[in-house]
Amino acid sequence: MSIPDILAEIFYILIGGLFFLTGLAALRGERSRQRTGTALFWFILAFTFVAGPWLPAAVTGVCIVILAVLTALGMVRPCSPGSPPASETRRNADRFGFRVVLPAAALAVTAVVAATFLPFGASNAIGISALFALIFALVLFRVPAGEIPRAATHDGVRLIDNIGPVGILPQVLAALGALFTAAGVGEVISSAVSSVIPQDSRLAAVAVYCIGMALFTVIMGNGYAAFSVITAGIGIPFVIAQGGNPVVVGALGLTAGYCGTLVTPMAANFNIMPAALLEMRDKYGVIKTQAPVAAALLAIHIVLMYFLAF
Amino acid sequence: MQAIRLAGVLVVIAGFVLKKDTLATIVAAGLVTGLVSGMSAGEILNTLGSAFLSQRIATLFVLTLPAIGLCERFGLRDKATDFISRLKSATTGRVVLFYLVIRAFASAFSLRVGGHPQFVRPLVAPMALGAAQARFAPLSEDTEDKIKGLCAAADNYGNFFAQNCFMGASGTLLIVTTLTEQGFAVDPLHIAAASIPAAIAAVLCGAAYCLLFDRKLKAGAAQ
């Protein structure tokens, strides 16, 4: 294993540890009647993060199915205590003032610095900056040595518990995409769509390609998966074959798909998870805000591709 | 009977229409897709498990939560509100617009400045809410939700549409590899340049929406 890979595994083990603590907090929690199911969910998830790579992949596959059964039965619920009381945060705010933004800023700055100057890759840079920001916060807020283990994990566990199972949706979607590819789902869709495009109409081809990218992204929740399928099925045989510049068609094709990402609950990490993270009452609130902008942007993509590619 | 392979797509659609549990819907769609295309149970579980493990990067944001949660406990939101309350000229729409521009630029230079857990929850949303509270308090729950939605959306606009302006972005490289495999040799520099118009369009659309939102807030408060 290379050093970046080892580092990544260490970060995944730490994440597994946080999931394990979330499970423990659920067992001790008083807010929910679903303590056992919730704890089981987080324990199994922790197991896949820590032990998954060392076992046959099918073991992780079985774990995912069990996680899905637990959430399907409604056995996973938020269990840990809610946000810290307003009196406590106000007292702390008055004590530390604007220094409280420093760890958040450190999170961003060290991520950029680590990604740029350290040879461990951009994803490891996120982990490095997360640990740096946490240590920085513990020092800055003068957390007594005896309270460090609790302070370092307690609020993280609270947020994980708040976000709940939707936090791992992006990962599960990637697994779905892999199954779609293995089953040849893309070929079937593109051959069906390609029969409805009128011959020799550049505008129709461009519109069908852009809308197809957006629609398929809506269904899959993943612009990347849609791009390889719809570009091979529609973009190349209909738009590029009529003389469209491949560079422009490709570049605008992928971002046309992102217009679909803005309106799909399948893109959970961008649309559903933030609604949970921001404690919005409507879990589709982010999507509703984005829908008019997404429609305008899709129309703009069709116009841009039509004029720039030919 | 090629169409039978689309059964998984139907499961996804049905799951969302019937408002079934999202995680369970996706896993069920994967299992159905594998079964109708003739994969064995072992193959399905293997594919599912190995893709899940290789995509653990998607869950890396969890590591940032302890630091963010700690900052919240030590008054991050309170201070953000204090800050905005003093800034008389910053309206909700302008706070979000400012963030959108920063997010888009950072994204175009592949700087990971932004993100819902890192920036929107601890910084942007409290500032945007604070700006509205300073002017129009008390806010209805509905208005609060709309402001939060605006903040989350700005992050997405800046992130999605500007990221491919960077040569080494994964999306840019996906376009290059996909087209090259199909016989069209393109290079990352040209793809990145061709991604700029969409990035500008996204920032302009998002900005217009932010400014409209300010007008709506004002109109709502006047009533």
Could you explain the architecture of this structure?
- The complex is a heterodimer of chains A (310) and B (223).
- Chain A has 15 helices and no strands.
- With 310 residues, chain A is mostly helical.
- Chain A has three domains: 70 residues, no CATH class; 78 residues, no CATH class; 126 residues.
- In chain A, α5 packs antiparallel against α6.
- Chain B is an all-alpha fold and 223 residues long.
- Chain B folds into two domains: 53 residues, no CATH class; 160 residues.
- Chain B starts with 6 loop residues before the first helix and ends with a helix.
- Classes of the chains: A mainly alpha (310), B mainly alpha (223).
Quaternary state reads: heterodimer
How many β-strands of chain A, per DSSP? 0
Secondary structure tally, helices of chain A? 15
Average per-residue pLDDT of chain B, rounded, comes to: 83
Low-confidence residue ranges of chain A: none
Per the principal axes of the C-alpha atoms, what is the gross shape of chain B?
A: globular
Number of separate domains of chain B: 2
**CA-based gyration radius of chain A:** 23 Å
Main beta sheet of chain A: none
Structural class of chain B: mainly alpha
Compute the CA-based radius of gyration of chain B.
22 Å
Largest sheet of chain B: none
What is the H/E string of chain A?
HHHHHHHHHHHHHHH
Average pLDDT figure of chain A: 86
How many distinct beta strands of chain B?
A: 0
Strand percentage of chain B: under 5%
The N- to C-terminal Cα distance of chain B equals 60 Å
